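Morning run. Coffee first, then this:
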Amino acid sequence: MPQRSLFICLGLLLATHAHAQHDPQRNATQQIAVGNFEKFEQEIAKGEADDPETRFVRMMAALKQGKMNEAVDQARAALDSGLSFERLVAGPRELLAPLRETEEWNAWMAEFGGDRIRLVHGPMLGAVTDSSASIWVRTANPASVSVKIGDREFGPVKTSAASDHTAVVGLDGLEAATEYDYQVLVDGKPVEAEETHFTTSPKVGEGARFHVAFGGGAGYVPKWEYMWDTIAKFQPQAMLMLGDNVYIDQPEFRLCQDYCYYRRQARPEWRRLVARTPMYAIYDDHDFGDNDCIPGPEIEKPAWKREVWNVFRQNWVNPSYGGGESQPGCWFDFRIGDVHFIMLDGRYYRDLKGGSMLGPVQLAWLKETLKGSDGTFKVICSPVPWTANIKPGSKDPWDGYPEEREAIFSFIEDNDIEGVFLVSADRHRTDLRTTERSNGYTLFEFESSKLTNRHTHKVVKTPGLIWGHNETCSFGLMRFDTTAADPSVTFECVDIDGEVLETYTLPVSRLK
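And here it is:
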């Protein structure tokens, strides 16, 4: 393997890093994956013994070691502590398969109505346009899934073990800016779900008023999972998940990925939000590789890249994923009214030695997309910050790739592309900053990445800092009004309890 393709992040195979954000159950799951049960005991002991997540992880460890009696006891204790039976149904299925062969499993199926459980995760809404939408689900067993709106039925689409029992049902022929109620059917039977309604986007190209929420840094902290209900109360037209959407930090082992995705997807707060809010997701280091990872420019090296990408696709409902099978990635774009959102992949092709975060294919796509855009606003969304010195001494943000950053900014100026501003995540706080440009208009950057994280980063006072907030969990909200004579976007910093802490209104006339 060429030197520049080496996976620079150390310690992946042993998964010994316990970053400040990570919880003991996640750390212990890493040790199950690698079979280090001495280290497992050290990690799981840091969690509350009676926590249902602790019990669940202890059950997984017992199953991994073939200790069936202990696994059954821990599963029962987890259920008694409040774990939903759907968690056991969802899996990780390969590891939990022996549990399904026990007499106790049959008893639990009767006790918790397991034979009636058809949907374990979702529905999740995504890829909403002015005439279409997509609905993602994960079923309890291989099944046929369809979606009904009124008298129309869309689908069916099959789920299977090969797709991790997920399916995406496409809806078409919808009217712009119209609210719809929908119902998910599994094997022809309707399933119960909350908040199964959505509003299609305003007509593409036309001025509109709407708002979009965004953030990153969504570590699993149960007491802060009500963040998803808080965001839902604002009824955003879209929610942008900009990386570190779950904290996995172990790309070599599917067990770790499944565990981290499944526990979030099982949360009722999350399910209420995603059932009604179009979700758009890109990854960053903690949900792609490991902390500050630099995997190199090759498609198939390291070997785990494509599999991580496949898992990512199975757990989201984006309009597209990079260049598809021939050029994997998570970059894509979409429009709401006359606002153009451009989502970037900052990890798959990251090559510090070669000086590129995006790779040549994605960079060419970005330039072509920007040049061809007629959006009043063009919102370029990155998993890491653009502003210089925002993480002093680090090459993980765009500071590590200054030539490519300058090439993008210069391209915007050389081609007279108006209405561009920047959005990012990664830093555990919410900031609004500006970068002065000698040959073009000032570039605004709205950054937020403390949705549910424990860990906090201080507000770094770079030139152009307008405001920063790091005292509580928060998210960014962008309120667009492109119906005005001078269209504008208002940036809001909103805390986990729904209080708007900071605002700033930017008219498009300043982006020319």
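The longest strand covers residues 119-126. Good start to the day.
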